[in-house]
Specification:
Helix content is 35%, strand content 13%. By secondary structure, it is α/β, with parallel strands linked by helices. The protein has a domain of 90 residues: Rossmann fold. It has a four-stranded mixed beta sheet, with helices on both faces. A two-stranded parallel ribbon has the order 3-4. Helix 4 runs antiparallel to helix 5. The longest helix is centred in the C-terminal third of the chain and has 16 residues. The protein is globular, with a radius of gyration of 15 Å.
Length: 147
Amino acid sequence: MPSTTVDACPPLDHLLVGGPDPFTFKLDERFATFVKKHVAEGKGLFTTCSGAWAIASTGVLDGKNATVNHEMIGLAEQMYPNVKWTKEKNWVVDGEGKIWTAGGACAGMDMLGEWVVQNYGVEVASMGFKALDFDRRDVRGERLVKG
């Protein structure tokens, strides 16, 4: 059960946005304001699946490299042409390392696994990967050596 709303939410270090139905979803302006403030403060933003498509409506991805579920790239390019969409990678990190966008859900798991490695080291991350029976893949989907 949610314990807060965007109106009362304390500042977060990181925000993860999953993928809504792209054909029926409209981002509430209160949440859009929350996201813009979060990004402006230099906090981490992660999206997976169609989450980047939803967040693109705020403008925070304009001029940045990003990806979305690869089945949606064409629609994303039409709706949000100021974003540099790519389907060559399963996840993309902006130039400042604060905004991470992933394609489908499995690409999101790979992306977050890489974030853990970069921020806590492969030794710490490997303990979690082992417990989850998780094999890391790189941005192109290639399996990395179990570590």
